[in-house]
Each structure stands twice: as structure tokens, then as C-alpha cells.
Amino acid sequence: MSSGYKPDILWSPHHADRYVICDTELSLYRIGPAGSSETKAGALPLSEETAATLLAINSDTPYMKCVAWYPKQEPECLLAVGQANGRVVLTSLGQSHNSKCKELVGKELVPKHARQCNTLAWNPGDSNWLAAGLDKHRADFSVLIWDISSKFSPEAVPAEKVRLSGDVDSGLVVTKPLYELGQNDACLSLCWLPRDHQKLLLAGMHRNLAIFDLRNTSQKTFVNTKAIQGVTVDPHFQDRVASFFEGQVAIWDLRKFEKPVFTLTEQPKPLTKVAWCPTRMGLLATLTRDSNIIRLYDMQHTPMPFGDEVEPTIIERSVQPCSESIISSFAWHPSAQNRMVVVSPNRVMNDFTVFERISLAWSSTTALMWACGRHLYECTEDAGQGVAAAEKDIATKMRERAQSHYGHDTVQVWRNHVLAGGDDPQLRSLWYTLHYILHCSYTENVEQKQQSNKQSLIYSGIKNIVKSSSGTTETRRCWSGSDRQTDVPWYHSEERSLALQLCGWISRGPDIDVEPFLKSLEQEGEWERAAAVALFNLDIRRAIQILNKGASAEKGDLNLNVVAMALSGYTDEKNSLWREMCSSLRLQLKKPYLCVMFAFLTSEPGAYDAVLYESRVAVRDRVAFACMFLNDAQLPRYIDKLANEMKEAGNLEGILLTGLTKDGVDLMESYVDQTGDVQTASFCMLKGSPGEVLKDPRVQCWIENYRNLLDAWRFWHKRAEFDIHRSKLDSSSKPLAQVFVSCNFCGKSISYSCSAMPHQGRGFSQYGVSGSPTKSKVTSCPGCRKPLPRCALCLMNMGTPVSSCPGTGKADEKADLTRDKKLAQFNNWFTWCHNCRHGGHAGHMLSWFRDHSECPVSACTCKCMQLDTTGNLVPSDSV
Amino acid sequence: MELHILEHSLKVASIAKEGIQICTHGLIKLAFLPSKTRCKFFSLTETPEDYTIIVDEDGFKELPESEYLSVADATWLALNVVSGGGSATSSQPIGVTKIAKSVIAPLADHNISVFMLSTYQTDFILVRERDLPMVMHTLSSEFTLLRVVNGETVAANSTGVTNGFVKPKLVPRPIIHPLSSPSNMFCVTSLDPDTLPSVATLLMDVMFYSGGFPNNVLFTSASGELWKMVRIGGQPLGFDECGIVAQISEPLATADIPAYYISTFKFDHALVPEENIQSVIGALRTNESTGQ
């Protein structure tokens, strides 16, 4: 017979470590950590961490149909058992005999007519009340509400009536229920409504769900549905009820009880258990017959009936608590989050925690947040000072740079790399390149305005410059300071000279004078580099001098003296010991520039790979070197090769080679792909020669993304500054006016730039207003001279001096946008609510809505500020 | 009050005692293996005279044609009274007594023959399919008529035909048929379908072989109610005579005595609480005598 009963499981309402398994008997278990000293040898492992110990068995109540645990703390472990004949027996487990519940244990609540007891529910408020749902009887009631404290047994059961039941202990038998409900029908399931303990939700009343109020049992609310096999109220949302029928679950809202809010996807097999998770909002677990999975429906993100016909979305998941065995029943743990114990038909139990879905969100800054269960984790960048700049996230860097006006220095362009932090060699190289490009282009502009061809050449990068090179002259120069002829061929052309300018070695062609450059390097303490540049310009003496200076400088490296000494021993004799030793020992030099100096001195003419491919040496120096020592055949090949390498690596030093051309955009693309630094990309490309590169969709994409980033960071002022900066450099990006304020009377725009059109000869003087229209009061419409609307707060007519500066010439446009020449104070601007159309001066409105949420116009209840999605946000950058 | 007209088309048949073995296969299938047939309504009553079977058309196909099997011509429909519920008065009489005045008597007044089948859960009033318009006309004033179609309950449209119906004759109804009351007692109970497999062999034994139940094996009535039977009819009653149920149930209703009423192929049977048997017989005798 036991095979017919599938074990069910029930958690103690007050002891989180106790539960009862009921099949043909009741078994009380205690759950505890596995392997602890408490657990005895007989403990059953439930999971890797937990084990259950059997505490007590009660087999006094045969023919169990349903069990309900007494909800109060005391007496603990009192159970109501509903039997196949409709009797409800109170019993207990593992209690000493003198415990408080002694008088209750053994009490029987007997219906008038025997039939199966389907369901039991203790009243959550009055714990003496127990509702029992029974099968149908011809004329009897199917729901009986018993008072377990009742000692009243009106008609003592006559002796002859006891014959069939074999019950003698009539003192404990209660036959008079407190309430009887639901005549002539079966009750399949019931539950008390947590909101009102006098109300009871019944399922099975003629295929309907009915809510009875015990204060007036003749009244009921009911709805026809098939889903009546079980009902359960969401403990977290007391108007939400799940009811099921075969494979289908319907979710109801008691406030809108006419039809289910929604039904869950139908399962092929009939459901056996449906339970809301007590520890988590809106999580419903369902189990079907002969299944080894529990299906979970997450209604967390469904605000209950929002609109009338909104179908909420539900996230459906399934879990498989024990891999092979089918599940007979499950029960949520009353307090441990998402935890449940499942039991298989042969009573194998499993402790299982449903893993919470993880939701994750990036902030617009570098922080990352994720939530799992009740825990919220935030992962932010270590903002400590010790963090090396290179390790910082690019978003942090961009934010910092945006705040330090990075990219906005248009006069000393190279300074932008300092604004960027000054610690990124690539940015340093990039901004110097841009600086030299702009500088050359400017001097070209000033000197030879006619040569626009050359102008664009400057922007097209050294790669294109050397290709266009013609008329290269080959010379053999002397080592300066000696008349000894070198056998090093030295090349010169106008284009090469331009390239050297772009490399920053010389400031102006065609003379090769690197002295200013050397001086600046010395100033910055770049001794090795200066020495190398001097040497490449065939001035060993100057190189040695620089090295000596470096050695004697503060914190100077004394080794530089040694290097200087070695350098001074230079001989061009092919087989000298010096040459031999230098070419082998130079590799041990740590400093790349020292290394390439000896490489240069020991190389065969024209074979300078050791210099050209020394990657630790700055690209610009290598390129400048190549421009001097490689012939017309070698040079483009080298530059091409280097440019491709740079492009692939996304190395911004390569911009020197590619210029701001399509090639340059390719390179920048690869840089952005690696770093995500759209900021540098945007600023760099804006510097490009007007037109071409800015039209590239990639460039537009970077610029838009950068603007979006600034907006997302609430750097609205920065974004505005960027837009201004952008419109100066790329006039095509300047947006046209899209919003006009029109006069209420004449319907014309109140902006003077429109009214500057001649007025068909009709002067305003005829209206008796003196003065010219352009000098008229700002508070009247320039079209019809009628006053402009009044500010709702100060009641003055609005109007801004912006209108009084009509038609500024194009030449002045840029100047107008600078800060000190603002056209009108923002405080005086027109603002109005798009909803109620009330408004006033921006400054007044701002201060009003700082303290109010409603419109300042009396009797207008518009919550203007709440309609403004960004109105309540504060910009995070200060002006 | 609602009156549900169930969708089953029922046949009433009788199997002679000696012919039961040829029907056992079908009967076991109908009684214990509901998933193997499409039968939705099945009742088996054993009396000393015969076995009466009430079964829907799908179930009827399971029974073999045989000389032992006699079938009433008509197709019957089952009516079921559903009280709206919600009434808190617990003093309502049980079963057929309750519906005596509201259903049985009006039908008898309109000369509609009924066939009663009381069960533990409810009372089924079987009427001939051809009488349905008349039934609906008769009862529409007192009941909300609902018809079950494919498992869904829908409002039944009264045909609205009233012409040609005989005016009810409101006369006292004397009991015409002889009554008898055997001394044995009956227990009425219900069984959870889940437990059916575990008691199937026992039930089969009771149905086809031996005579009685071992004590308390079905874990039956809690209150231990026992019932005594009143058998109506000396000769087989046939199916055409109307008013028989009304003759019995009205006096019981007046005396407020609960009863089960089970019609079989040949006779009618009323079960009344054992403690009431004397007053029942008394009440019925009174009616009998006034009739004669």
C-alpha cells in the first residue's frame, strides 16, 4: 500500500533545521552540517555540506492525505493530519509527554459524513482555527473550519455509531465545526488570505475559485476556472495567487479577480506541487509528476497589472536537484534563501539551493556592479595614488583627461600630451606630430599661400612625403670639427627636409640645423637621445660634449662619461679593435640610444638595420635617421614597412608616417580597437586638414561616441566645450538652429537674425516707437512689437539681449563663442514646460524647482520638473 | 439553485444473475480501468433480482450482446442539482429529500418519468432524452438551467415551447406500490480514486463472488451511520409510470428524514437512517392508506 503514497515534505515554520517527511508515517528530521560532531552515525547526507538526522517517527495516523504544521511557536511540532475518511487528527512528533500540547495531541475533528480530506490550513491569525477541505458529499459542506481548542462535543457519539470506526476515546472527538462552507461540492485546495485572516480562498467549488469572508458566509466572490487543483498565495505579494490544474498554472491578482493575470506555459504532465519561494520575491517553483526537474518562474520583474492588457514577462528556468532520481516532492526552506529540500519516491532526500541569476551592470564610469541573491557587489577601480597610470582603465583616464581640458590646447598643440598626464609615450609622440604638422602647415601658410598642394602634403604623412620626393642629392659630409671625409652617403631633398621638420629635428628647412632641437633635448635631460641626434648629424664632438654634460648633471649617469670616452675613440678603419669590440659590446648597453650610436658607427654605409629596427628608439628619430641616410630606393620601402607595422600595432607614433589620411584613420582604428580611447581619436582627427578624414564614418563614430560618453558621465559642460571646439575645426558639424521661439501674436520667430530681413519698407516709427528696431526693447517681439510672454515668477516680460545682436558676421562667429562674450546670461533665457506650457526665466525656474515640484503658476498642478528626465541630474563637471 | 444537465447519454440495462460471468470483463474494465475506455459514467447496482447497470454510450460498447442483458429502450440524461452554496444553515435534509419538492414533485406533476440514482456525493435524476424540453420547461422557473458541453458548463436555452403541455394536476399522491423493508443494514461511503487500485481485488470479490465486506476494510463512515432500505414495488415497475419517486420522497421531505433513493431496472429503493425506519414506515403507511 505504501507504494501508493508519495512522500511529501514539510518544513517546520519556526525551526529552520527541522522538517517532516510524510508518506505512510510522519518522520521528523533535523538538518545540520555534514561531518560535524553533532551528526551521529545515522545521519543521512543531503548534500556536500548538510546531513539529516532522524529525530522521531509517528505512525499513529494511517490513511494520511494531507498534513499541516501548527503555525505558532508553542506548542512546537504539532501537526494536523487530514485522513482519507475526512477526520483531522492532531498529533505531534518527538515531544515529551508532559509538553504543552498534551491536551491537543490525539484530538480528532470529525466531519458528519466521511470522505477524503484534501487539504488543511491553519489560520495565520487565530491559530486555533483549522480549515479542512473535504471531498464532495451530497448535501454536506466541503469546508469545515474547526476550533481545536473547542472541548464542546455536543452529541456524544452514540455507542452503536462507533462500531465501524472503532473509536472509543470520544472525549477527544470534536464533531461540531465552527463554520461550514461550500455545500454540495468538493474542496480541492484552500488557503487563508494573509491580508485578512477572516477570508478564505477555496478551490474546487464547481470549477471555481471562491473567496469567503467568515463574517458573512453567504457572500462570496468567485470566478470560474479550471485551475482549481491547488491554490497558494504569494507570501511576498498578498494579492497574488497561483492556482493550477493539470499542467497549467494560472496567476491571479485578487484585486482583479475576474480572470488570471496570466497563465504559465502548459506542462505535458500534471503538476503535483506549486510553491512560492518564501525567501525571494516572485519566484514560483512547480513540479510535475514523474519528473526530475523543478521549474522556476521568476516574476520579479513583472510589476503586477500595470496597464490593462500588459502581458508581463516571466523568466522560466528549470533546475535538477538530483541528477537521476525523479522528485516526489519539494519544500522551500523557510528562511535560507532559495534553498529547498527535495525528496524522491523512495525517500532519498536532497538539500539544494537554487542558484540566483546574476545580473550585471556597468556604470558609465569604470564601476561594475552585479547582484546575486540579496548581495550586491561593486567592483570599482582602485583609486589609490599608488596605481600606475598605465594600469588605469581607459574610461578613468578619459574622464581625468576631459577634466584637464585635454585636446583643447590649440595653440601649443604638443602640450595636450601633458594635459593627458604626460606619461604616455604614444600620446606624446602623437601630439608632437600634430604640433609639427600644424606648425609646418601654418608657416607654409604664412610664407607661401599659393602652394596649397604642399599644404595638403604636410597632412598626408611622411610616407607620402618621401614618395613624392624628387631631386635628392647625395653628399658625403665631413664629421664636423674635422675635415675627415666620411664614407657615409648623406641624402638631402626638399621633401626630406620637410620630413625632418615633421620629425621635429629641425624647425625649418632647407638648412639642417639641429642645434635648437639638441638644446631642447638637453633641457629635458634626454642626454642619450641628444647625443644620438648629434652623432647622426655627424657631430661626434657635440655628442661627447652632451654626454659629458649628462654625466655631470644632477642625478647624472656617470656611465655616460665612459660612453663618451668610447665614442671618442671612433675610427673608421674597418678592421680596428675598436670597431670589433664596439659592435659586440654595444648590445650590452641598456640604453637604446647609446646602443644605436655604436650601431651607426660600426655599420657599413647603407646597412643601418641595427639602427632602423631598434624598436626602443622613438619612431620619429628612426624616421629622421632614415631620411638622412637611406637612398631613394631604400627609404620608401623602410617607411612603408614601418608604417604597416605601426598600423597593425595601433601605435600612435605611426601617425607621423601616415599623417591624417585614410591610412591614419586605419591606424587610429587599430589603436581604438586596442585601447577604446575615442577621446584621443576624436581630438586627433579633428585636427586633420578640413574635409577628408572627418567624413570617414569611423571618425564620425568616434566623435559621436565620445560625445555620448561625456553625456553619460554628465560632463555636459565638457560636451558643450567639445562641440564648440569641434564646430570650430569642422564647420560642417555645426548644427542649424532647430528650435525657434515664435511670437504669440504674429507667429514669427522672435530671434533678430530673422527679423534682420528688410521689412518691406515699413518702419516701426509709424507705431510711435522711437529708435531703430535693432535697438528696441528686448522684451518685445521684433516682428510685431507686442510684448513677449511674462515670466511666471517675476512677472516681467521675457526677452534676452541675444536678440539684440543681429546678424553677426561670419568672421566674428568664433570670437562670439568665447566665454567672456556670452550673448546672454543663461538666467535670462526662455524656458517653459512642454506639458503645461508655463515658464519663465531660466534662472527663476531653476531656483523655483529647487524647492518645488509643481508648476509655479497657481492652479496649475503640472509636475513639470518630474517630467524632465535629466532635470534632476546634476552635471558632474563644474564649469 | 442550479440544475446541471450532464452531457452523458445514458443507457439503463439489467444483467440477469446467472449471466454475470459473460459481462465480468467489460464490467471490470468499466469499474477499475477508466483510462482503458472512454466511459465517463458508470453505475452498478446489485440486488437479489439482478444487476442494474447505468452507463454512457461509450461504456455500453464494452458490454457484450447477450440474452441475459436487457436494455431499456430510452436514452437517459442525468440531471444534477447544485445548490448555490454559501448557505450556512446546516439543518438541510440530505439527498433526495432535499430535491423532492423542487424537482421530483414538479416532474411528477407533469407526468415525466424519472429514474433516481443517489450516490454518496450527489443525486442524479435521470430523465428520458425525449422528455428534456418538458423537463426544462417545468424546472426553468425554479432553477438556473446549465448544460454541460465538452466539460464546460454553459447556459441551456429553454426551447420556449409551451403549447400542448398538459396542465399539471395538483392532486395528492398516494403510494400505489407495495413496500417492503428487509432487516439488513447498509453502509454508504465514498472511496478516494487513488486508493482504488489497492482495494480492487476486494471490490471484485464483493461484486462477483462473495456477499459482504470484511469489517472496516474500506475505512468507512466516520459517524458510523447505518441505513435501512425500503423497497418499492411488488412487480417490476417498468419505466413509464411516473410519480413513484415523488410518492416516497414527499412524505420523507415532510418528515425531514434524509434518504438515498436508488432506482434499479426492476424496483426502486430508498435508504433511510436506521433510527428513522419506523417513522418512515409509519409515514409511508399513512400515505398508503389514504390512497386506498
Helix content of chain B: 25-40%
What are the low-pLDDT stretches of chain B, counting only 5+ consecutive residues below 50? Answer: 85-91
Mean pLDDT of chain A: 79
Mean pLDDT of chain B: 80
Rg for CA atoms of chain A: 44 Å
Q: Helix count of chain B?
A: 7
* Main beta-sheet strand count, sense and barrel state of chain B: 9 strands, mixed
User: Biggest interface, and residues per chain?
Assistant: A-B, 50 and 39 residues
In short:
The complex is a heterodimer of chains A (879) and B (292). With 879 residues, chain A is α+β, with helices and mostly antiparallel strands. The chains are: A alpha+beta (879), B alpha+beta (292).
What does this structure look like?
The complex is a heterodimer of chains A (879) and B (292). Chain A is 27% helix and 21% strand. Chain A is an alpha+beta fold and 879 residues long. Chain A has a 5-stranded antiparallel β-sheet with strand order 1-2-3-5-4, with no helix packed on it. Chain A has a 5-stranded mixed β-sheet with strand order 6-7-8-9-13, with no helix packed on it. A 4-stranded antiparallel β-sheet of chain A has the order 10-11-12-14, with no helix packed on it. Chain A starts with 7 loop residues before the first strand and ends in a 12-residue tail after the last helix. About 7% of the residues of chain A have low confidence. In chain B, 27% of the residues lie in helices and 27% in strands. Chain B is built from 7 helices and 14 strands. In chain B, the strands form 2 sheets. In chain B, strands 1, 2, 3, 4, 5, 6, 7, 8 and 9 form a 9-stranded mixed β-sheet that branches. In chain B, strands 10, 11, 12, 13 and 14 form a 5-stranded antiparallel β-sheet that branches. In chain B, a hairpin with a 4-residue loop joins strand 13 and strand 14. Chain B is globular and about 50 Å long.
